[in-house]
TrEMBL record, chains A, B:
Gene3D superfamilies: 3.30.300.30, N-terminal domain of ligase-like. InterPro entries: AMP-bd_C, AMP-bd_C_sf, AMP-binding_CS, AMP-dep_synth/lig_dom, ANL_N_sf, ATP-dep_AMP-bd_enzyme. It comes from the Bacteria. This is Fatty acid--CoA ligase. Signal peptide: none annotated. Residues 33-409 form the AMP-dependent synthetase/ligase domain.
Length: 550, 550
């Protein structure tokens, strides 16, 4: 903030200058949606009018159970229409939505629920066995609301207050939602790093509304065109993971058709993609790789032509983007992280590239993209000085935007580490090109420092992944007396019985040396084939475990 | 605001939660624009990089002249690239942009400049003769910056500090813009009512950023699709009139090509429409009527196929929309007012209508449309109770949104009249249909109260305008002993020498009575033909003067 004195004028006593509330997104969507629907697996569907009613009913259910403003409400569910309703109803009564990462180990789930001070829990019946043994250690929880896909008697020791649908059906369809301070916390969830306990990040009504408006602007831009009222959306990034990248809010604002697939089962996903004519999804590269490698898809028995997939979490490689393109799947990139709500950049193709052929587009599709409106993004050297936008100078990415977590919940030291001099330090390393496009090379701790140079493990992964016979690869730095560090690769062969030789891979990489893209010393001498590469709970390469396996 | 206590969490000391600043819109546009340009008549063009540099240079020029945060800077110019730069540079240094309505009478211009407390003036040479006689009465003005389209010596008694272009060219292209309270006033301008002095309305950085994001969302929506990065925009609503509906901000956010036509001269407008391949403009119905009636356009000698025109200010009639459509011009409606920044509703066609034929679309194209995101809009009866959404119940339109003027500048009584119980009362009368579409019938004071019923003068104008031989029509209520009021019409004939008879018009209107659209007593007995219908400075029917002429 500056010390200048701009003109401030008083408001009329009877005037209103409304705070930004998540509920406004829902109201806008209801007006826009027409007959568009919210679909849950092959089990239920209803229009936006009913969606709105259910949000109001859920608010009644919660407040009738004593949930009040300021309470933290935990949700444990797979992607569902109910989860979408929780995205709105919980923050709209002034409570905080805690989206529990159900893929964490039980002790970590317990840690997050204790740390968040959850006061009420909404859980799908599948998670009863997870929560029952933990309930004793959660004395703050005043009640459990159960979600069932089919009504059947259930034996549980949990103090269940009732079943979601039956309690909902008893409630009136209009709730007088209050309007309150837009800086009130709306959502809270935990991100797992490579060390220490999960860290809680939180977002306010204001932050989520602004994130949604900016994301909507990017998603509708030419050269991207991922989503609008007339498209069908299905997430394949879980709703507990950074609000499914905020897209359920954005899709709701637009009034788009939304399909929630429940637990991610390959058969159900593919069934819904086809039967609901899904236009747009988002996922991590690993998941897209699973889809395009699936027998039925790869053989074009199932036709996914026209499906647009936004890839984030890790970089989209050119080989994966090409493989998808051959199957008619249109991939784009985006970049962000749990701490950033998450969207920071979007791979909106420039005008001349958007009209070019696929080969020309390919490198652009794999860049992280342009900062979306209201984001300030810099790539800085080790002295925090912005670097040249030359596409080559590599440094840490730091950002400002009106939707960045203002702290890690109850973690002062780690918060101060995240925020330095008013900038959120992403811990990611990348470069900006002449057009302002960001390319992420690595996590700062995954950069391989060899012979005084920085080598991007991600770039090397991208080259190795193009080698015939290689299905997947992870590169890390290993200590080396002479060079400081040297790159080492862990790879999965397409045919485990007949993997390429190390010499094959090295010979393949020579072409990139010839093309000036790779320096010869960057070719790894250590390449080891394994059955599976360790991944984190959200499907990213788990470099910590990989290091221990090399 | 409510009395509930939601969860508020403290921010890390080193964290930033940026305020919403107009400058962020410019930065987003520069990233998106690629080679897109800002065009001024047939005189100049430059890309967004230069646009940004010129904004920074203008900030240097202003501060070098002693303009500081909190100062009000008046601009008198026709639509130009310079004006666009003023839209950004002036608020971005913390000063207030006063867009002077140059079409007002000199004494009104003086009134607004005195009332606004203008401290500095940027004016086009065409307005020297307007301002010279007033300068003595503007002692607060510390300097005048002159804009010239061609450099030539000028004799003026005004204390001119220099010429815009030459001062700009001396300045560095990077200005360290401060970030400050988003509730600081950014813009101020005056709206003329039918009685009393012009009223000042003002908008903050926050309000303009939110208005822009919401307008961008609406403009990119399917069923509207007016503007995006790949389109060419040219305003035909002056930039001094409610920020040209905020579209210069929205076009900048998107990085679209922008064409500024200077003074609205029919020849230049048409030349630019064709040579710059303009995709999108906005204007009042009167102006569109002028264009479609122009010889060269009507004869299709000039082809405007594909031109999209957003019509506001007054309702778009079905006959004008049809006439435009026959020439390939695609019209849409929007609704708002000076007090509302202005956009409140947008005629985004519903999915089923957007794919229907023109005849089906026609009535939808002429409705004011759906409230855009973050707008709450109600139609209320005389007790401020919301009416049924049945497309028939007519009442006053009242609104809430995060971009409504919080007062009339230094006008407490009129501010309190505008704002009642936390709602901005538009003074417009309309109805909402089942799908939530607003139709505006009238100004509340223009509603004709006859025999205890409300008759919409606008609706009657729409029917009469369809009568063969009638070019334009205005309807007002005149006092009547028996009925309270009776409708009277002022009309312009297509052929002034051969106007239709009153009986012709009345006979023509009978069909609407038969169709149940009009009640028989609503057929006016007074219909008078005139050469021209009085209009206000922004081209709306001037019902006050019309009343005096009937």
């Amino acid at each position: 903030m500056s010390t200048i004195t701009p003109k401030m004028l008083p408001a009329t006593a009877s005037a209103t200058n409304p705070s930004l509330m998540i509920g406004d997104l829902l109201d806008a969507g209801v007006r826009m949606a027409g007959d568009n629907q919210i679909v849950y697996r092959d089990q239920s569907r209803h229009d936006y009018g009913r969606f709105r009613e259910r949000v109001h009913q859920l608010a009644h259910v919660l407040t009738a159970q004593g949930v009040k403003a300021g309470d933290v409400v935990a949700v444990l569910d797979w992607d569902s229409h109910r989860y979408l309703e929780c995205f709105f109803a919980i923050p709209m009564i002034g409570a905080v939505l805690h989206t529990v990462n159900v893929r964490l180990a039980p002790e970590q789930v317990l840690y997050t629920m204790e740390h968040a001070e959850d006061a009420f829990v909404i859980l799908h019946e599948e998670f009863i066995s997870l929560i029952e043994p933990l309930a004793d250690k959660l004395p703050l929880v005043r009640g459990y609301l159960l979600c069932q896909d089919a009504s059947q008697a259930l034996n549980t020791t949990l103090p269940v207050v009732g079943e979601f649908e039956s309690l909902l059906s008893e409630q009136p369809t209009d709730y007088a939602f209050p309007r309150f301070d837009e800086n009130a916390v709306a959502t809270l969830f935990y991100t797992t790093g490579t060390t220490g306990n999960p860290k809680g990040v939180f977002f306010t009504h204001r932050q989520l509304v602004l994130h949604t408006l900016s994301e909507a602007s990017a998603f509708q831009a030419p050269g991207f065109e991922l989503l609008n009222r007339d498209k069908v959306y299905m997430p394949i990034t879980p709703m507990f993971h950074v609000h499914a990248w905020g897209v359920p809010y954005t899709a709701t604002l637009m009034g788009a058709t939304q399909v929630y697939p429940g637990r991610y089962e390959p058969e159900m996903l593919v069934k819904l993609l086809v039967s609901e004519k899904v236009d747009f999804s988002h996922c991590v590269p690993t998941l897209l790789n699973m889809v395009v490698s699936a027998e039925a898809v790869a053989s074009k028995q199932i036709d996914l032509t026209g499906w647009k997939v936004l890839v984030g979490g890790s970089a989209l490689t050119q080989s994966l983007a090409s493989k998808a393109w051959e199957l008619g799947i249109d991939t784009r990139s985006a970049y962000g992280m749990s701490e950033t709500c998450p969207l920071l950049t979007a791979g909106i193709l420039p005008q001349d590239i958007a009209t070019a052929d696929f080969a020309t587009q390919l490198p652009w599709r794999c860049k992280a993209g342009l900062p979306i409106p209201l984001v300030r993004l810099q790539v800085v050297d080790s002295n925090d000085e912005p670097l040249q936008q030359d596409g080559k100078s590599i440094g840490e990415v730091r950002v400002q935007a009106p939707w960045l977590t203002q702290a890690y919940f109850k973690e002062e030291a780690r918060s101060t580490e995240l925020w330095r001099d008013g900038w959120l330090h992403t811990g990611d390393v990348g470069s900006l090109d002449e057009r302002g496009f960001l390319t992420i090379s690595d996590r700062i701790k995954d950069v391989i420092k060899t012979g005084g140079e920085w080598l991007s493990s991600l770039e090397l992964e991208s080259y190795i992944s193009q080698c015939p016979g290689i299905a997947e690869v992870a590169v890390i730095g290993v200590a080396d007396d002479k060079w400081g560090e040297r790159p080492a690769a862990l790879a999965v062969a397409v045919d485990a019985n007949n993997p390429p030789t190390v010499a094959d891979v090295q010979a393949f990489l020579e072409q990139f040396v010839t093309q000036g893209k790779l320096r010869r010393w960057a070719i790894p001498s250590m390449i080891r084939f394994v059955d599976e590469i360790p991944k984190t709970s959200v499907g990213k390469l788990d470099k910590k475990r990989i290091r221990s396996e090399v």
